[in-house]
Amino acid sequence: MGNDDTIAKRRDRVLQLRAAGLTYRAIADEEARQDGTKPRAPSAVAADYAKALQARKGEDDTLRSLAVTQEVERLDGLLRAVETVRRTAARDGDQGMVLKAADRVLRIMERRAALLTWT
Q: What residues contact 11, with CB distance under 8 A and at least 6 apart?
């Protein structure tokens, strides 16, 4: 039972740090600093984040909605940055970079659509 409490507390902390805007890697580093341990893999932090959200699915739709909103805002920021790169590359005649940027735009759009259907 103690282990379940430890996992629940760790996942709550992941939710709080993610809501504060930390990346999965930054959360792993912060956990390691606080606990005096080696950092976990960012994918392990992401799995905790997903499980924490799933556990609260029925009880806390507001938090889940906030998380989706935060992720969409981050993707929008990335999209703006990629569009800047694409415009610069087009102006400079770098067709290879334009195609790479276009591919990245599509990937961001796909991720955004997946997040928005998750809510």
A: 48, 49, 51, 52, 55
Q: Which of 53, 47, 43 is nearest to 16 (CA)?
A: 53
What residues contact 87, with CB distance under 8 A and at least 6 apart? none
Q: What are phi and psi of 76, to 5 degrees?
A: -60, -40
* pTM as predicted: 0.50
Average pLDDT of the segment spanning 22-42: 94
The mean-pLDDT minimum among 13-27, 42-56, 57-71 falls in: 57-71
Please give the Cα distance from 48 to 108 (Å, whole number): 23
| Residue 52, token pair as written in the block | 């924490």
Burial of 54 (0-12, 13-18, 19+ CB in 10 A): exposed
| Residue 17 to residue 28: CA distance in whole angstroms | 10
